[in-house]
User: What shape does this take?
Amino acid sequence: MQAIAQQSTIEKSSSLTAIFSIVCSAHFINHFQSAMLGVIYPLMMKELGMSYLAIASLASVYNTLGSILQASYGFVVPYLRRGVILGIGNCLLGVSVFANGFASTFNHFFIARLIGGIGSSPQHPVGSSMLASHFGAGRGRILAFHSTAGQIGGLFAPISAALLVNWLGWRGVFWFIGTLTTVVGLMCFVFRDSLRSAQDQPKSRHVPVGWEAYKTCLKNKNILLVSLVFMAGAAGRGQDINEVYIIPHFVHDFNLDLTRAAFLFSLIQVGSLIGPFVWGWISDRFNRKLVIQASLLMSGVCTLWLAWQETVSAGLFFNLVVYGAAVTSRQTLTQALLADLVGEELFDAAFSLYYFIGFISIPFWTLITGGVMTKYGFGLAFSVISISYLVAMSLLLLLLRMPAKAEASVG
Assistant: This one.
């Protein structure tokens, strides 16, 4: 009996390792292929005659399509395993990235990227719900690792792509990364049994699925509150005000060259690698609601401090690292809280709604910040958005009942 129990423990540990490795690898490559475009675009603009307006239009459509599709996976999961969904998504993304290497016109590139947007869309809701399902007691740390994997992909992509371009050319980079992405997708199929969870088992007729699961989630005040907390904070979701406005602020207001401005921005990225894991670790040990409120308070204070920095100094360096650690933790922490608040049978619908609601405010905050910054400057603009974190913190006051933490083993 003891030997059987040990064998079962080993198999469970191996299964959890496979799940964690594959899902985080997929998140890494997903962010890598998107972040490397900043290096490749100048070469494509010259060869294909692409304009800045064309690139902006493509980015807007790509992000909007992904956000809308993220809301749909609660319908799909009851009929298709999560591992299979991730496999299809990553294979589709890989093929689209590979096809970008053959683009001869902007229209060809546009169509291939839109297909990639469809392929990348399951990563956040499906990957997060899968990890939350398997790693109950340690989901704060595990979801932080998932988030950090994507951050690392975005951090390494520009320099890696610049080196690869010198060896392979921009088309070769697309072919190489497209192949790697497809391999990750195929791994999801190979390990589909390991990626299977209790959620994938046949369900009782009393368990809500499809639209019924969404209606149950929409009636749940806690799910909507947590999603609104994620939505209310202005920065920290990627592709938002940090990426758009901070480097131009350093260049224009501090009179720095692009290289030094990029170095300062990299300090935010360093913080974003450390912060989600530290906050997630703390939230697994203390009241998660209070930990989120503490991180939001720190986000507001750090944003206000950054708003009125006037010189490059050690204080600015510290401010940027702590700012990155605070504002990027909200996603990890609210994911874990969401998983604490709902039953596993609702994970997929709940996470789909969470990401749809949370990401839909990115264009709003980008527009508001740009308008205030244009008329009144960076200081007032970031002072205004510092209030967004206090609003998010206040929303959590409406969350009066906290359930016991999940007791599943982290393996």
Remarks:
- The domain at 211-398 is CATH 1.20.1250.20 (Growth Hormone; Chain: A;).
- The chain has 18 helices and no strands.
